[in-house]
Structures are given as C-alpha cells and as structure tokens.
Design brief:
Keywords: Amino-acid biosynthesis, Aminotransferase, Branched-chain amino acid biosynthesis, Pyridoxal phosphate, Transferase
Enzyme class: transferase
Largest sheet: 9 strands, mixed
CATH architecture of the largest domain: Alpha-Beta Barrel
Catalytic activity: L-isoleucine + 2-oxoglutarate = (S)-3-methyl-2-oxopentanoate + L-glutamate; L-valine + 2-oxoglutarate = 3-methyl-2-oxobutanoate + L-glutamate; L-leucine + 2-oxoglutarate = 4-methyl-2-oxopentanoate + L-glutamate
Strand content: 25-35%
Low-confidence stretches: none
Oligomer: single chain
EC number: 2.6.1.42
Number of strands: 18
Number of domains: 2
CATH superfamily of the largest domain: D-amino Acid Aminotransferase, subunit A, domain 2
GO molecular function, one term: branched-chain-amino-acid transaminase activity
CATH class of the largest domain: Alpha Beta
Helix content: 25-40%
CATH topology of the largest domain: D-amino Acid Aminotransferase, Chain A, domain 2
Shape: globular
Amino acid sequence: MADAPANLFMTIPHPAPTSADMRNAAIADPGFGKVFSDHMVSIDYTDGKGWHNASVGPRVPISLDPAASVLHYAQEIFEGMKAYRQADGSLSLFRPEANAARFNASATRMAMPTLPEDLFVAAVREQVRIDRDWFPTVEGGSLYLRPFMFATEAFLGVRPALEYKFLVIASPAGNYFKSGSPAVSIWISDYSRAAPGGTGAAKTGGNYAASLIPTAEAFSRGHDQVLFLDAVEHKWVEELGGMNLFFVFDDGSMVTPPLTGTILPGITRDSLLQLAREEGLTVREEPYSIDQWRADAASGKLVETMACGTAAVVTAVGHVAGPDGEFTIGSGGPGQLTTRLREKLVGIQRGAIADTHGWVMQVD
C-alpha cells in the first residue's frame, strides 16, 4: 500500500444516503462538530500483516469487543484538518503531509504502528472526494476532517496491541466560537495539561480528557478558552485547551512558547511562524511567564496576543483572568497583525492569495 494507487480503496455502496434536501438543510449553518457526512474511510492493521482492507463506505457505528485495548489502555490518536473551497469551486487540503507526519509522531509515542504518509493523504483525499457535496454553504465554512486510529485487539495484558483500525470521518463546519466574538477571553487554570516526559506533544485523546474539567470551569466563568501553565513551576505559559499562543510586542518582535515536549506542535503555529518572519517580525520561540504577560500587558509593551489552531484558525485574545486577577491586552480587540496574519493564512488556504510555500494540495 506504500504507493497509495488511485484504486486503493474498495468502495462499499451506501444503502441509504442522506437526501439532498436534508443534507442542504444540515450544511446551511452546521456549527462545529455536530453534523457528519455520509461516508468514512477505513483501513485495518494486524501485526505481521500490516495495513489492509482499505475501503470507503457508509459511516456506521463501530463494533468493538468489550476487551478491546483502546477501552482499557487508551491507545488512540487523531488529527484535525480541513478541506477548503477554492475560487474555481474545487476543493483543497492545507499541508496534509504535515498532518501525516504529526500523526506518525503521535503513533510512535503511543506505541502504535505508523501509517505510510502517502496512504494517510490518500485516505483523506478519498474522504473529501466522496463527500464533497457536504461542503457547507455558510460563509467561511469548511469540511473538517478527523483521521484517527485506535487499538482493536481484545486483550487485557498491559502491552501494545497487535491490531488497530484507522478511520477518516468528515464534518461540515462553520465558525468555531459560537459568539463570533472578534477576541476571546481565557481563564488561567490551576490544573496541568501535560508534564515533561509525558504525552503532551502527541495528539491523543487522554490529553484532551485531562482538559475537560478546567475547560468546563472556564466556560462556567464566562470565558471562551482555558490556559494551561507548565506542570513543574506553574508559571510558564504553554497552550490553550486546543490552541497555540503568540505574543506580539511594540518593538516588532513576536514570541511563542517553545516545543519542549509538553506542547502540541501545531501546523497552524508553524505556518504563522513562517508568515510572521515574511512580515519582517523578529520571531522567538522562548519561555514566557504569566507574570511577564501580565506586566507587559499593563505597560503597553505587549500589543497583541493571538491563539491559533486548525478549528479556529487565528483568533485574538483580548482578556485574561485567573485566581490572581485579570488583565486586558491592548484595547481588548483584535490587533492589526492578528488580522493581517489571519487574512493571509485564510487567503492562502482558500486560493485568494498565491501559495508560494507549496502548502495547498488540490483534491480533484
């Protein structure tokens, strides 16, 4: 399967696809993560046999043995990515090979088999092709894609499983933040998301499970996102519940926390690093403390803070609150650089701005 030929995936006909009227109603304003398309891609893995049974067919419930390893030892990883509509009506992917590489890095950390990167990309492209009619009509919409893998072997011994399943599902998506606010408010959590030597750099469900209570606390206090500090000193800014952070200063420099194994290496993060340097900014990847953040916001040295991720793209952070008080960044709204970088990134993704980096891959 290494060469991922065009006829790689066996097609299983859908016995009862969603009607056009029902589909159009669902994609008119889908929100995020609540509406799903008709199909899914599936590939199996067995130790000694490798990857096999590649198919694309109806999205159906998954049958698992109660002793399946994923249910007991949490061998599970996933990716988040989007398909975008281009000006000519075609669909494209943004840096899918980077998602494939990160997926395999997560697999290695979780003692799971790696998936050939060209096979990963072929699976995602196949999912987009078969469900292209599910692309939402809402302004700024996209087709959110969720490739994931989990252990299926029925075995209760504590060791890496010998059998796995890889799936890709799709979800029409509108705006990530319901409020549509131009700047978000975040809550500083007392909880820790990841510790040195742990799984913080892997995109695995356990990391997100650990964030659910602090995220719920942030929501209950009226905030949009939760901020995690480091687990050792509880002073260094790491990341939000699912987004990386950037800090922009009045001297034309920008800082983002370094990738030390406790922060997910975001693909949007990496893209913004490149775009910011092209804007002429001095970009540094270095530790930044919550106390320094508060002091820089108060003095005016810090002019913007932005959060980024696949779902929300680039979003301004306007207000920060925690047990020790609260503060506002700039005017509390989006700054010029945040707006400019978002427009440039979205423009590249949707074909309105020339892709000089080779980031955009046509699906058709």
